[in-house]
Design goal:
Layout lengths: L4 E6 L4 E5 L4 E4 L7 E6 L3 E6 L4 E5 L7 E13 L3 E3 L10 E2 L19 E3 L4 E2 L2 E2 L2 E2 L6 E3 L16 E12 L5 E3 L13 E7 L12 E6 L4 E4 L12 E4 L5 E6 L5 E5 L4 E5 L10 E5 L8 E6 L3 E6 L4 E5 L20 E4 L6 E5 L10 E4 L3 E2 L37 E3 L15 E2 L17 H7 L5 E2 L19 E3 L44 E5 L15 E3 L15 H23 L13 E11 L7 E12 L5 E11 L2 E8 L5 E6 L4 E6 L1 H5 L4 E5 L2 H10 L5 H7 L8 E4 L7 E5 L5 E5 L5 E4 L5 E4 L5 E4 L19 E18 L3 E3 L10 E2 L19 E3 L4 E2 L12 E4 L16 E16 L1 E3 L5 E6 L15 E5 L4 E5 L10 E5 L5 E6 L5 E5 L4 E5 L10 E5 L7 E6 L4 E5 L4 E5 L10 E6 L2 E6 L5 E5 L12 E6 L10 E4 L5 E5 ...
């Protein structure tokens, strides 16, 4: 989980941030302004300053915010002078937009605000539909408007070309004033409240935000066109309200609430993807007639409110919304509520908020000090030396001793005699949730306790666990949050804290604090916003603990410990522990070691994909026997009992020989495959199937693979061989092919969509949610028990992906499109092929390890486009679908998606914060000399930006920072060769080559547009030492001919094979692919691993294919294999290998 930030404003208007990885509040870099309140998201923060002006703070990133401006130059042919700018009166402007309706001269396109700057001057776009145009970029047509082509014809009477220019947002890490469209210096109306949300509106364009504001006159305003690429938006729109609004809160989805002066609440209805501003208001009465609502904060479908009697209320929007708990770009399903105390002005976190306990359990105070206070920290003579706990003192260069931060005491919610949080409650579910102090700030501690306060804030909302009929907003149930708790027994621990009556008496700030805070005062907060913050229950930040053994006045001191003192302290403790261990074990060395000798057997019935022809599933009895020998070593054997021609036989597998266990998704079977080195060489794993998914998981979890010895020897040195991942697997594993002998597969923990490696041990992976991960050098982990695993470098890993089903309809002359189809039609709810029935209620997560984290929603991003409701139209099933209805379209479909999440473990660490789509690491040939330069790594972000990673090395595989490489369009695939040749494929299927890439110039200088194969759109490229292979959308594999050192772009594409899903070219130009329908394989299944044979310098394309393991593989990487294997030895090791076939991939 990457670091996230909590935003807060103190009583003096200064904005602070608190990182989940830190322990101190840091003052905002641009501290010139004083703010009243802020509302934060993951990448930016909006705020209202004391001058009632609105500002936005955009966090810095390695990827710039770029916006492309376009203008079209139009010309008509003249019999006298040829093409010229003299147009007919009925023609469009000579310089216009793409529609031709708006006049758009190049000198008339200005920057929208001072916060932008131009990257370059105007230039002609010479790319048209993925193909390069003639010099000049002109496209031709018969007339305006019409279909344009690259080639000039005899009847081409008009032509146009596109001019483009990029502008870059420059005001990052500073507060940028939001200009007004009418008057850039003034707002349409002074604002006093603001809320940001809407980033999780169902299938909303990624990066779009909803910014709502309330003026001093009680009017509600909406900021138009706010998105990641346009962080300041375009203009303010006024919305009518039934009364004067005081405060507003916007959730991450489509929930918007506001409060009126009279104490009532307003709910905005009709907010959706096509109408983010909504359509109407509904009035919600307060919980009591005398206690009106003073402050609201909303999450997904839960509303937290503070009434005028300083009580916190919670209301559930039961069934009225379709919501999910995926916050912060689908990173976690969290329920977070933040608040500020009425009296002590401390920030509180509501602990224990879950889907089943939406009110939570207790308030937990944040005791972090400010970063500026660290300079005032000093040592305390009352501190105990760490060495004293072991009967001695640590001798170092100074007298002060380090304090153990692990020995800490948590600051829970104060007891009945202490002040309670009584202000803004901010919800992590609604990271937009913000809070402010209320009129009850001056109440006494006794009054606060009696009424139970947190006074204001935002509440996290969760899905209702007991769905029912949706109530109207006026019938919304309110729940009083009782903040009174049993008084805790005073603790007389080593900390020695005296019983206090208020949180401020704990002395949360260090000595030497400058005004306006006193010596023992903590910061006084006025507002908090958790929209950009994620706090996971399994990894709580160090905000809620104070060091034990300190006096109240120095609880948050940051002691100055020198490295010499730390080293001496650790060395002394280690020596003392070693001596104690020897002393305690000395009396027991003559005892004989106890060894348990036992046998454990599990039996059952499964199905086996038989070895003999005809290959089919046969019913078998299986027995898993595990025994412990005299030496204490454990071993397991799997017996398979079957019948052939009425003769009983059995097969057995020693589980210590199993190197990979792959659960495979099948339409009708719950099956899994066992791989051993011998079975891998035979291209024939053991495939077993269970009757139910639960039975399969029981067998998979009970299997053991104790190959820790070999894995330890491999350790984390280099990463040789191949990498693969399974696409049909419920929990796709990562496999490593060992270079021993003919090679075999070894399973690695984790869950990834793709992996990339080089021979120096640098390995990167990308999950289904586009999260980047780097290999740590460990092994093992995963969802299944019994897999051998290293004791270090194993970390928690999560992944999120979507499950898709399709709703199909046929047109009826009477009723229009209905769910009643013809008898020969597909299921009205089906998968993409239409062969399997898939309904919302019957569709389950891929396996038991997955859990739903969202409800069903319409997927508008399917290929071919959709209409506003997500429908795609066609003449019949199956056919080519398009997004607009025509007279010949008699069927339609739309895609529904639901997100599920997997939590597993493996030797992977996350590389935040940029989500990636593709990654490529330079492969090193065995003859290459390592010059000491950093390892070249290129990547494509999920938005299509091209990035170059700096500082990557074998010792630092994660690198240090990203370098953005400008492009004219979003890219989809990238690959770097052994000689720094960088090739890429754009989303429109066109190919590009990056020129002048060297170790001293890692980003190169310019892109060269390479024509694609005729009538084909490329989707992937892979570059080796001298070879370049590309894959198109139809599964055709192409080889680039004519590449020489003097002409690295090559001359033409030559077709190699078809039915290929993925290609990987290694540092020795070896070619491995994932292919479908491979001849000679034991099963004509999709996703078979094959490699190209006969690849030689004089014959770089090779002459045939040799297949490997098959069945559902999705990705492979051979770029770490830089070992030249003797041809004779390879043949001796595989005498039984099937003969090569020159046409292994069927048409």
């Amino acid at each position: 989980m990457p670091n996230s930030v909590l935003w807060a404003v103190d009583l003096f208007g200064r904005v602070y941030t608190l990182s989940t990885a830190g322990q101190y509040w840091e003052l905002c870099k641009d501290s010139q302004l004083e703010f009243k309140r802020v509302s934060a998201t993951t990448q930016c923060c909006w705020g209202i300053a004391c001058d009632n002006q609105v500002y936005v703070y955009v966090c810095a990133s390695d990827v710039p915010i770029r916006r492309r401006e376009e203008a079209y130059e139009n010309q008509r042919w003249n019999p006298v002078g040829g093409f010229c700018e003299k147009l007919l009166l009925s023609d469009r402007w000579a310089w216009s937009d793409v529609s031709g309706l708006q006049h758009r001269p190049l000198d008339g396109v200005a920057l929208p605000s001072p916060h932008w700057e131009w990257e370059s001057d105007w230039y002609v776009d010479e790319n048209f539909g993925g193909e390069p145009t003639e010099k000049g970029g002109w496209t031709y047509a018969i007339d305006f408007p019409a279909t344009y082509t690259r080639d000039k014809k005899w009847n081409s009477c008009v032509r146009r070309r596109k001019w483009i220019r990029y502008r870059r947002y420059k005001s990052r890490d500073i507060w940028a004033k939001i200009p007004s469209k009418d008057d850039p210096k003034e707002l349409p109306d002074p604002f006093n409240d603001l809320s940001v949300g809407g980033w999780e509106i169902t299938e909303e364009p990624v990066g779009r935000l909803s910014v709502w504001a309330v003026s001093l006159q009680g009017k509600v305003w909406y900021r138009e066109d706010v998105s990641h690429s346009n962080p300041e938006g375009s203009s303010w729109s006024l919305l009518d309200t039934p009364g004067e609004v005081v405060q507003i809160s916007c959730g991450p989805h489509d929930l918007l609430w506001a409060t009126l002066w009279e104490g009532q609440a307003l709910v905005r209805e009709g907010i959706n993807r096509s109408n983010p501003k909504g359509s109407s208001w509904s009035v919600v009465e307060p919980p009591g007639s005398e206690n009106g609502v003073m402050h609201v904060s909303v999450g997904v479908n839960v509303v937290w409110a503070v009434t005028k009697d300083q009580k916190v209320r919670r209301g559930c929007c039961t069934g009225s919304l379709e919501g999910c708990f995926l916050l912060l770009q689908n990173r976690a399903s969290l329920f977070q509520v933040w608040g500020i105390g009425c009296e002590d002005r401390a920030v509180y976190f509501r602990q224990g908020v879950t889907p089943s306990e939406l009110s939570g359990k207790t308030w937990k105070a944040i005791v972090a000090a400010r970063e500026c206070d660290r300079s005032h920290s000093g040592s305390s003579s009352s501190l105990l030396s760490a060495g004293c706990f072991f009967g001695d003192e640590v001798r170092g260069s100074g007298e002060s001793a380090p304090s153990d931060t692990d020995a800490s005491s948590e600051v829970e919610r104060p007891g009945p005699g202490q002040p309670l949080p009584a202000e803004p409650l901010d919800d992590s579910k609604n990271p937009t949730g913000s809070s402010a102090s209320g009129p009850g700030a001056g109440r006494t501690a006794e009054d606060t306790t009696e009424d139970g306060c947190p006074a204001e804030g935002s509440g996290a909302a969760g899905p209702d666990t007991h769905p029912g009929p949706a109530p109207t907003p006026a019938e919304l149930p309110w729940t009083n949050i009782d903040l009174k708790e049993p008084k805790k027994v005073p603790s007389h621990s080593a900390a020695g804290f005296p019983e206090t009556t208020s949180l401020s008496s704990l002395g949360l700030l260090p000595l030497g604090l400058e005004e306006p805070y006193g010596v023992d005062d903590h910061p006084l907060w006025a507002w908090v916003s958790g929209g950009g913050c994620v706090v996971e229950a399994c990894a709580m930040p160090r905000w809620f603990t104070v060091q034990a053994g300190l006096s109240p006045s120095v609880q948050t001191l940051s002691l100055s410990i020198t490295p010499a003192q730390t080293a001496a302290w650790r060395k002394q403790i280690f020596q003392q522990l070693t001596e104690r261990t020897k002393r305690e074990l000395e009396n027991f060395r003559h005892y004989e070691q106890a060894v348990e000798q036992s046998v454990w057997v599990k039996t059952g019935a499964l199905q086996w994909w038989c070895d003999w022809k005809p290959h089919k599933w046969v019913d078998v009895r299986v027995a898993l026997e595990q025994f412990t020998g005299h030496d204490g070593a454990r071993d397991s054997i799997l017996f398979i009992y079957y019948v052939v021609h009425e003769e009983k036989k059995y097969a057995h597998i020693f589980l210590n020989e199993v190197v990979a266990l792959v659960p495979v998704l099948n339409e009708t079977k719950h099956s899994f495959a066992l791989y051993t080195p011998e079975r891998t060489r035979q291209r024939w794993p053991v495939r077993l199937a269970a009757a139910t998914e639960q039975d399969m998981n029981d067998w998979v979890s009970g299997r053991r693979s104790p190959r820790a010895g070999e894995r330890d020897s491999h350790g984390g040195a280099t990463w040789p061989g191949l990498l693969g991942s399974d696409q049909r697997c419920a929990t796709p594993p990562v496999l490593l092919r060992e270079p021993k002998g003919a090679g075999f597969w070894r399973q690695m923990g984790g869950h990834l969509r793709m992996v990339e490696a080089n021979s120096q041990g640098v390995v990167w992976g990308i999950g289904y949610d586009h999260t980047a991960w780097v290999y740590t050098g460990g092994y093992g982990g995963g969802c299944f028990q019994g897999l051998a695993s290293s004791t270090s470098n194993i970390y928690t890993q999560s992944d999120v992906k979507c499950v898709h089903i399709y709703e199909n309809q046929r047109w009826n002359p009477v009723t229009g499109y209905t769910s009643r189809g013809l008898p020969t039609d597909r299921y009205m709810w089906s998968d993409a092929s239409g062969l399997q029935e898939c309904t919302k209620a019957g569709t389950k997560p891929p396996s038991l390890q997955w859990a739903w984290v969202s409800d069903w929603f319409v997927d508008f991003s399917v290929p071919g486009g959709t209409d506003q409701e997500g429908w795609q139209y066609a003449s019949d099933f199956p056919a080519s679908y398009h997004g607009s209805k025509t007279m010949k379209d008699f069927v339609r479909r739309r895609c529904w998606a639901r997100k599920c999440k997997l939590v597993t473990s493996g030797p992977w660490l996350e590389v935040p914060p940029i989500a990636l789509r593709d990654v490529s690491i330079i492969p090193e040939s065995p003859d290459a000399e390592r010059s000491g330069h950093s390892i070249a790594l290129w990547a494509i972000s999920d938005k299509g930006d091209v990035l170059c990673r700096l500082g990557v090395s074998a010792l630092n595989p994660a690198g240090s920072s990203w370098l953005h490489v400008g492009t004219d369009q979003p890219f989809a695939s990238i690959s770097i060769g052994a000689c720094y040749q960088v090739w890429a494929v754009a989303r429109d299927g066109s190919a590009f080559y990056r020129g002048s890439v060297y170790p001293s110039q890692p980003a190169g200088d310019c892109w060269y547009h390479i024509p694609s194969p005729p009538r084909q759109r490329l989707k992937q490229v892979s570059v080796g030492q001298t070879s370049v292979y590309a894959l198109d959308e139809n599964g055709n594999l192409w080889y680039r001919q004519g590449i020489t050192p003097s002409y690295p772009q090559g001359s033409s594409w030559e077709h190699v094979s078809n039915n290929v899903c993925r290609v990987s070219v290694g540092p020795l130009d070896q070619v491995w692919v994932i292919a479908n329908k491979v001849q000679g394989s034991h099963s004509l299944s999709r996703g078979t691993v094959c490699h190209r044979t006969g690849v030689q310098p004089h014959e770089p394309k090779g002459h045939g294919w040799d297949y490997g393991i098959g069945g559902g593989w999705d990705h492979i990487s051979v770029r770490a294999n830089a070992t030249r294997a003797p041809r004779s030895s390879f043949q001796e090791q595989e005498p039984s290998a099937p003969p090569e076939t020159h046409g292994p991939v069927c048409c």
